Amino acid sequence: MGRYVARRLLQMIPVFIGTTLLIFLMVYSLPGDPIAALFGDKAADPATVARLRHEYGLDQPLLVQYWNYLTGLLQGDFGQSFTGRPVADLMADAFPVTIRLALFAFGIEVVLGIALGMLTGLKRGKFIDQLVLVLTLVVISIPVFVLGFLAQFFLGFKWGVITPTVQDSMNLGQLAVPAVVLGALSLAYVTRLTRTTVAENLRADYMRTALAKGLPTRRRIGVHLMRNSLIPVITFLGTDLGMLMGGAIVTEGIFNVQGVGNTLYRAIQTSEGPTVVGIVTVLVLVYLVASLVVDLLYAVLDPRIRYA
Amino acid sequence: MRGATRAKWAVGTVAVALVVTACGGGGGGGGDGKGVLSSSWGDPQNPLEPANTNEVQGGKVLSMIFRGLKRYDPKTGEAKDAIAQKIETDDQRHYTVTIKKGWKFSNGEPVTARSFVDAWNYGAHIDNNQKNAYFFGYIEGYEKVHPESGKAGAKTLSGLKVKNDTTFTVALNQKFSTWPQTLGYPAFAPLPQAFFKDHDGWLKKPVGNGPYRIESYDKGSAMKLRKWSRYKGPDKARNGGVDLRVYTDNNTAYTDLQAGNLDLTDDIPAAQLKNAKADLGDRYINQPAGIIQTLTFPMHDRRWGGEKMAKVRQGLSMAINRKQITRQIFQNTRTPATDWTSPVLKADGGYKAGLCGKACEYRPAAARKLIEEGGGLPGGRVTVTYNADTGSHKDWVDALCNSVNKVLKDDKACVGNPVGTFADYRNQITAKKMKGPFRAGWQMDYPLIQNFLQPMYYTGASSNDGKYSNKQFDKLVDEANAEPDRQAAVKKFQDAQKVLAKDMPVIPLWYQNGSGGYTDRLSDVRLNQFSVPVYEQIKVGS
Questions:
Q1: A223 and A109: one domain?
Q2: How many interface pairs between A and B have CB atoms less than 8 angstroms apart?
Q3: B318-332 residue pLDDT tens
Q4: Of A269, B138, B207, B477, which is most buried, counting CB atoms within 10 Å of its CB?
Q5: 3-state DSSP call for residue B51?
Q6: 216-245 in A: which are within 8 Å (CB) of B?
């Protein structure tokens, strides 16, 4: 187990270098000079541009820039944004917000999704099953931004339950609606995924054996059925956590949440390399760690899987 | 397909519903001067230093926390003395500035002549990377502290000298009669010693001498400004303060405004302009700003720059149906341009409608004839280049080309040529890669006719993107700058525009308005010439 984790952690290094290099190359090879663009429609002063380019290291060959960035990164230095703020600072503001939002959404989809999935899987063909199927179909077919605007309109305008946008991005209560919107799609997927595997495993031999052994229903469903049914669901959830963190751009935009999505969007608009690469690098790390955790959970759930 | 239909239905409903619920919020009133209003904001692009702020979001803050020697009257645009007691000159080149006594920064430091001189020296010096450094380019010694390449040869501008606490002298490197009127620009603001002693601390929470002080600043999300009770000037805040809230998407701000969750937005999304009038009624602001949009020809390109091509350039200008485009595409938030300046200058400041003459009117027959006489479009076609990432330029470029094509009775005569990013677009312009006319927008630095002409059309000027050069034009500008009498100077600048009308190196398209909206809690809301809300005048009701 320990050796497996160590190997996986070591594997992360080339993946990490590869992805950051790709993102770095993409952002920095965008045509045009982002420094000159800071001057707006007016002609930039060449002397100042040259100095700023030098300060940001933009006057060096791309690979040298990447090397400098990487060595800086290893010392915990994410570089500087064009507003003169360290990128680490920017991320320290944005990530706590997005992590809250993502974990909130994640919590909703795990608890509600698995519960609904179990329920419908066990009551296959019944009314509740049909109802949930239709509802999840609706959620899956509506784009997130429509869902967001609808929630904002009805809850924010019509009924005045919430303010249309988030006033304090760190306030959990205010993040509730955006979290529901953000998690809705994945919730539907988790429900359907759980339902299918539960329905399938119900017919498995070991379930019949458990029944024949006279095990109580709680143990049969809660341990034997659920444990075996969760493997595909956990695979999905693992990658989904990364999606929730990075894919909140639309939701954060609608509800004006000052998180990673909004910061990233602004940075991309101004071709602010250090910020874009920094944020995406952290997101890549989140993905990598999440997938490692998923793989480890497999072993917990399925005794047949052993990592040497 | 069910999902798609449903989504459309949903979007439609939201759109309709937004209109229906437009009227919300409580009753208005005079206000007791204590109410705090919230206003939409964007994260400033640059550190909030006066000489480093060149866009409207940072400009909002500076307009609240700083007062300079002069201040532009938000209504008339006239440069009025703020801290300046008097600014005197005998030769239009050497100025003596006397400031009023008793002004203070909100940290208690007095505003002295040194506050100005130090601030300007800081702004001009190349080591400080200030984006507005060029403002100090008229002061003697600028090329020493801000050389075109290499290290600075001096620490301070030789043209600036402190005489005593309230007086300093300025020597310019050329005659510039209207120079005192440029001093209302935030770049010329004074700075307290705290700025130099603890720069990082100052940037975290800037300290100025204006009617507001900054109470808290959460970078990237909000800034709270409160009325500064010991402010000396006549333009004291009529409200208790302003909360600036960052919105990444102006649609979201507009939604919040309609829900009464935000008091003021100065950026109505293009898609909502159609509804804004109906939604907000008289709480919709649409007033001229000092911005002119133009189509610039690459005069360095032989195919467009030739003398004979003047007729083609004029013809193209006549082929543009400005009225129709401003009405249909911009919902009248632009006004067809008939000169190269802006209505915010007022007649007094040199704005004169119709200076461009027939060349800026829609005249299909004359346009065809002129283009034919000039030898036709080079290669039979014209491409209009624009940046596609911001400002929804595609809509109007397409409409403009449509108009030209109709006039020339050729579907392929004019096509738009989008460039992916603004950065790349600027790059292509500076690298002289433009093969045809390209869009340009000029936002004035100060409400002076000089600022609309010299930086763009004078030979070798900093923003002369089309590389236009005409000796007669240059001569008229020089004469105007040396002219001590303001009206006579204005007259010369207008004569210079007549040269532009003849050459048409740049087609004036339309004057841009500032637009905004506010809730009925507020009254006395207006934008100044830089499309920044005049916050200190706003009254907040309950």
A1: yes
A2: 172
A3: 999 999 999 999 988
A4: B477
A5: helix
A6: none
The residue length of chain B stands at 542
Residues A139 and A30 in one domain: no
- Residue B439 phi, psi (nearest 5): -75, 150
Asked if residue B425 belongs to a domain, the reply is: yes
Q: Is B508:B337 a contact under the CB 8 Å cutoff?
A: yes
pLDDT at A38 over 80: yes
Mutation target among A29, A33, A45, A163 for the B interface, most CBs of B within 10 A: A45
Query: How much of chain A is helix, strand and coil, in % rounded to 5?
Result: 75, 0, 25
Q: Tell whether B98 and B216 lie within a shared domain.
A: no
Tell me the residue range of the domain where B139 lies: 67-197
| Whether residues A68 and A148 fall in one domain | no
Q: Is A233 contained in some domain?
A: yes
Residue B101's SS3 state is coil
Nearest to A56 by CA among A246, A277, A260: A277
A168 with A287, same domain: the answer is yes
Token pair listed for B388: 């596609």
In a domain? residue A85 = no
CA distance B412 to B416: 10
> Is A23 within a domain?
yes
B-contacting residues in A 45-104 (Cβ below 8 Å): 45-48, 50-52, 55, 82-85, 89-90, 93-94
Q: What are phi and psi of B110, to 5 degrees?
A: -75, 150
Q: Residue A93: list chain B partners with CB under 8 A.
A: 218-221
- Is B501 contained in some domain? yes
pLDDT per position as a tens digit, B445-479: 888 899 999 999 999 888 899 999 999 999 999 99
Residues A60 and A96 in one domain: no
ipTM of the complex: 0.82
State the DSSP H helix or E strand holding residue A95, giving kind and residue range, or none if neither.
helix A87-122
Residues of B within 8 A of A269 (CB-CB) are: 389-390
Per CB-CB distance under 8 Å, the chain A contacts of B427 are 31-33, 36
Residue B326, domain member (yes or no): yes
Number of domains present in the structure of chain A: 2
Parent domain of A48: 2-74
Instruction: Assess whether B52 and B72 both reside in one domain.
Output: no
**Residues B250-287: tens digit of each pLDDT:** 888 998 998 888 999 998 888 888 888 888 999 999 99
Are B423 and A271 inside 8 Å of each other by CB?
A: yes
Name the residue among A45, A153, A263 with its Cβ closest to that of B220.
Answer: A263
Task: State yes or no: pLDDT of A78 exceeds 90.
Answer: no
- Whether B87 and B97 have beta carbons less than 8 Å apart is answered as yes
**Within-domain flag for A81:** no
A63 pLDDT band, cuts 50/70/90, is: confident
